[in-house]
Amino acid sequence: MGRFRITGAGAWIVALMVALSGASTAAAQERSADLRLEGELTRRNHETYVELPFAVPPGTGRLTVVFRHDGADDRTTIDLGLRDPQRLRGWSGGARDRFTVAETDATPAYLPGPLPAGTWNLILGVPNLRPDVTTAYVAEIWLDPAEATPSALSDAPLAQGPAWWRGDLHVHSGHSDGTCRSRGGARIPCPIFRIVETAAERGLDFIALTEHNAASQAQGLRELQPYFDDILLIPGRELTTFQGHANLLGLSAPLEFRLGAPGAADLDMVLDRAASLGATVSINHPRMPSGEACMGCGWQAQTDWSKVHAIEVLNGGAMAAFGGRAESPLSGIGFWESLLDEGHRLTAIGGSDSHDPDRPVGEPGALGRPATVIHAASLSQPDLMAGLRAGRVFIDLGHPGLKRLELEATAGGRTARMGDELNAASGALISFRVKVEGAPGARIQVVESGGARELLPAQPGDQIDQTFTRRSDGQRRWLRIDLRDAHGGLLALGNPIYLNWDDAP
Ligand SMILES: [Zn+2]
Ligand SMILES: [Zn+2]
Question: Cα(340) to centroid of ligand 2, in Å?
Fold first, then answer.
């Protein structure tokens, strides 16, 4: 099945094995191809172009091609190109054996844009095929529905874990209002490469480019990702409304953001659409005031918290506005803890909200300050987003050298880590253990439901390994830890372990 043969000079009949996958959400290479085009080329095809037609169904959001042939030893060369029903869509010659095309991004050499339904053609150019040689080839094609289009820019993890990965989840480039100095010294819309280069030099493992409502940055990120193979680039969006701002992480597709417009009647509808596109949702700088200085910045929208995954409790811009202080009236920590007390499970994250990559590293609002540190199985977009949603996250305000901040709880023979739930019957003893590496002189502060706080005694040395206990009252509680310096200043903020939470609303 899937073979085709020459039935006359240049006339090809293509038998397609069509197995459209429906609603699969797997990234292209994690499931078998939807189409497989196989065949043979001979000297008759030397210096010709062969077109392989295939059907693209309505609603397709991404098309990915992987091509192989067995003629390398015979010096066979096969170029690749693509034609959609209306136009030549790209030509990568002999430079690629795989490419992807979607609405907002495509492998360089191909044009991003809508994927019209109809007959498309994979074009094989044959600059060299020796006499008496037969070369067999296979083109595998994945067609992802728009609602389940993978947005990750890297097919494979950049590094394996499990490990703590450090990054910045809130960054602007010249695709919205991020600026930097040109080579001549003018202030210009900052190109993406300057931001990615600076983030890599600062040792970040990942950054999310979250432009105000714009979706145009995905193509630039896709082009940069293969070069920056030490920093994962995550497409994102800062959903920017008159009632508040929210980051949609891992989203590259366009999204209607104008509340009240068709398809975006209210916030619920926008968040449902974002969820269908796989986005992770964070409410940004919720306690910023809204006014002429920062329009729509405070969070005022009616919110179904079950549609939200995270709260940006520490925002570099809010810190910079208060002389660098993390705990100011503009901090989102109290806003977040009130939601936890109401029974909502939401992960605290941070973001620099960087609008200029050249802001010095020591200043709040500089790229990577604060950083969000996520425990994940690998350095890949799916694993980082899973770690974020699971609450396996702490926020680092910029303590040089802080490597890890871990909290474990044990009760009744079960152990839970930061972000986990743990049941403990009334009267049961819960043992907690904190491990910190790379923050000499720092102290642990325990923070609990309702705002109770306890500073633990200081431990000498570079490593903290400290235990404490609580007696369960059988009620739903949360408990987390902060890291503080000798003067009480906040160095890092941890996410909770959730106690007796399985009856959450
Ligand atoms: Zn904002
Ligand atoms: Zn922003």
Answer: 24
CA of 352 to the centre of ligand 1 (A): 11
Q: Which ligand is nearest to the CA of 285?
A: 1
Sheet holding 98-102, edge to edge: 17-18, 35-41, 135-145, 60-69, 98-102
- 342 and 427 belong to one structural domain: no
CB atoms within 10 A of CB 210: 31
pTM for the structure as a whole: 0.91
Per-residue pLDDT, 28: 44
Count of domains observed in the chain:
3
Q: Considering only residues 16 and 261, tell me which one the structure prediction assigns the higher pLDDT.
A: 261
Per-residue pLDDT tens over the stretch 49-70: 999 999 999 999 999 999 999 9
Give the end of a domain, one of 398, 426, 457.
Answer: 398
Query: Could you give the percent of the chain with pLDDT greater than 90?
Result: 85
Q: What is the pLDDT of residue 12?
A: 29
Cβ(370)–Cβ(327) under 8 Å? no
* CATH number of the domain that residue 13 is part of: 2.60.120.380
- Looking at every residue in the chain, the average pLDDT score rounds to 91
Cβ proximity of 467 and 490 under 8 Å = no
Q: Are residues 314 and 347 in the same domain?
A: yes
Residues 96 and 181 placed together within one structural domain of the fold: no
From ligand 1's centre to the CA of 220, what distance in Å? 22
Ligand 2 centre from 177 Cα, in Å? 9
